[in-house]
Amino acid sequence: MVTERNPYSKHVCVIGAGPSGLVAARELRKEGHSAVVLEQNYDIGGQWLYEPRVENEDPLGKNPTLEVHSSMYASLRLTSPREIMGYTDFPFLIKKGRDMRRFPGHKELFLYLKDFCEWFKLREMIRFNTKVEYVGMLDFAKFGKEKWVVRSKDKKSEKVIEEVFDAVVVATGHYSQPRLPTIKGMDSWRRRQMHSHIYRVPDPFRNEVVVVVGNSLSGTDIAMELVGVAKEIHLSAKSLEIPEGLSKVLSKNQKYLILHPQIESLHEDGRVLFIDGSWVFADSIIYCTGYSYSFPFLDTKEMVVVDDDRVGPLYEHTFPPSLAPSLSFVGIPRKIIGFPFFESQAKWIAQILSGKRTLPSWEDMMQSIKEFYNSRDAAGVPKHKTHDIASFEYCDKYGDYCEFPRLEEWRKELCLTAVKNSITNLETYRDSWDDDELVQVAHQSTHFTQLGPEAFDL
Ligand SMILES: Cc1cc2nc3c(=O)[nH]c(=O)nc-3n(C[C@H](O)[C@H](O)[C@H](O)COP(=O)(O)OP(=O)(O)OC[C@H]3O[C@@H](n4cnc5c(N)ncnc54)[C@H](O)[C@@H]3O)c2cc1C
Ligand SMILES: NC(=O)c1ccc[n+]([C@@H]2O[C@H](COP(=O)([O-])OP(=O)(O)OC[C@H]3O[C@@H](n4cnc5c(N)ncnc54)[C@H](OP(=O)(O)O)[C@@H]3O)[C@@H](O)[C@H]2O)c1
């Protein structure tokens, strides 16, 4: 599969300057392509570019286009320790004068990404305040999938530009568009309803009775933050079999934080009725029910569709067989160690585009996707979790497509110890742990020593 030459340099448009788009730009340039990154925001960072102003956003994200990209709230800290976060060749170092915690706040990761940009001189490749409004094939009959039209708007001048590229890499993220449940009475409930996408600080909920829907990371983080601010917090979960860590939090705050099953219906008098017949009068409901994939700018003539959060068909979550390799996606998988995985995707895409490597035939890619879907269905995985990977083996096998280094053992182990700690000690896992020996191993590895002392002088 590997050939020596790199005969083709492509003109590539990368959409988005978050962690996926930045590393895509870096890898494309390294492979000899000319890449332009179009970013709707004023700076890099994607989700990590905190946006405190959310008043213009529809609280339930029902408008066709969102005003705000980042769903980060003010108090947000990483769920995984900093050692495992970095791209393979750019460790997430502790820097004096900055947030030096092992599980730092969101700003520290933003600063890491800025350092990454600086180190690899990526800023010159990015056009900021440029929102992509349309991506489609240029005259399919004439060029097939070889040329793409990208229409973007400069947000300051409102000027619309149309450009033609050989390839497009979509790196627009998928934690912005609210995924909402359907609940009887939701449309007519007159009190405050919002999605965690626009939750920023607990203050607006002072002395309120708040129902928090969903007990995954956003739901538990927000519910815990509301303790001591809101009058009561009612946490509605799909299952009442909850992890030990959450149980401990509930017992500690049993007067104010109460677990319920799913909501049955909402009533005009403000009542929220749960499926076990219990009910509360609530002032606010915060839906922490996750996010949906959405590509409002993308016209693929139905060759890529989003069906209940399954983006497909995509070969290895990256290439749509009918449009590959000129259209690709970075960052679709969830439940992975993000940055190194995005890096491996970017490297593979860059090498496929240059002709250094080739993809299997259309038939073989489609067969592989079919087998993958069948295996997920057989395992009882709901469609909306198609891109939840949760497998180091998968990441390693994926990396083999472009001889990407396998995840270091310490990285895998540190990931697992943090997950285990968060399950049993939800409230404290970011500040108290017992895997210091593994941290030492990480710090002595080449991942951390490769840049030398220079790296600390940014
Ligand atoms: C609340 C929250 C907490 C999280 N915590 C963690 C964590 O602790 N650890 C972790 O690893 N991950 C975490 N994540 C996941 C996080 O999304 C990823 O770490 C990472 O940001 C994904 O990078 P990305 O580049 O794929 O997408 P994003 O970071 O979403 O970046 C996408 C970029 O595309 C741009 N864009 C979108 N549409 C357009 C358009 N039409 N035109 C131009 N530009 C466009 C956006 O402005 C944005 O800059 C969290 C996510 C959320 C929401
Ligand atoms: N760094 C941090 O501290 C932090 C904080 C928040 C979020 N994040 C990240 O952000 C991403 C999104 O996390 P998230 O928590 O917002 O979304 P999420 O992980 O998708 O979780 C949403 C939860 O809501 C549940 N749900 C859906 N409908 C429901 C209903 N009607 N009633 C009760 N529960 C319902 C879902 O159950 P099903 O899964 O069964 O549908 C799921 O458990 C994740 O990658 C996460 O790691 C990180």
Automatic annotation (TrEMBL):
The keyword Oxidoreductase applies. InterPro entries: FAD/NAD-bd_sf, Flavin_mOase, Flavin_mOase-like, FMO-like. Keywords: FAD, Flavoprotein, Monooxygenase, NADP, Oxidoreductase. GO terms for molecular function: flavin adenine dinucleotide binding; N,N-dimethylaniline monooxygenase activity; NADP binding. SUPFAM superfamilies: FAD/NAD(P)-binding domain (SSF51905). The keyword Cell membrane does not apply. Gene3D superfamilies: FAD/NAD(P)-binding domain. Its EC number is 1.-.-.-. It comes from the Eukaryota. Its cofactor is FAD. Belongs to the FMO family. Catalyzes the conversion of methylthioalkyl glucosinolates of any chain length into methylsulfinylalkyl glucosinolates. This is Flavin-containing monooxygenase. It comes from Macleaya cordata.
